[in-house]
Amino acid sequence: MKKLIGVLGICTLAACGKPQEDQVYYQKPKGFARIDLPEHRYRPLEGNYPYAFEYSEAAEVVPDRSAEAEPYWILVKYPALNAMIQFTYKPLNGDLRKLDEHVMDAYKLASKHQIRALSQKEEIITLKNGRKAVTIEIQGEVPSHFQFYTTDTSRNYLRGAVYLGNATLNDSLQPVVDYLKADALHILETLTWK
Fold this sequence. Notes:
By secondary structure, the chain is of the alpha+beta class.
């Protein structure tokens, strides 16, 4: 038995071969998957919604079918990017308490990412069309890097959140995040209430 183990050990070492002295190994450089982003071209939202805007031709609009979805909630899906912008609409009917509740919900939903977020930047922006919107940018390994809401303070409230479906490091997805942020800002620029 000892002789058999000895013979197998020698055979195993012989099978490994001898190392080549002149071969040098180099570490492979860090690389990211190539992402081809479509051009920014837009078309008007069709359908019977209390709001209207222009969205990307690279996207498709579908109703939000989640369990908590309400009327006029939609998803602007980007199939080629495995991403979407989720829109939640709430009628205010002149009730400022409702507006306060919806704004608090927007911050509560953004704060759910704080576990993995490195930073969170909130900003009130004035759009080219004169309207104001609140944007929340979240840095880190989070599924939603950009969220926003806008309102006319008396009748309409609209919240949007950009979601990525990929579980890749965010460094490689930064071009997609920037692309979707530009589309979200275009949506806000062209938003009108009906």
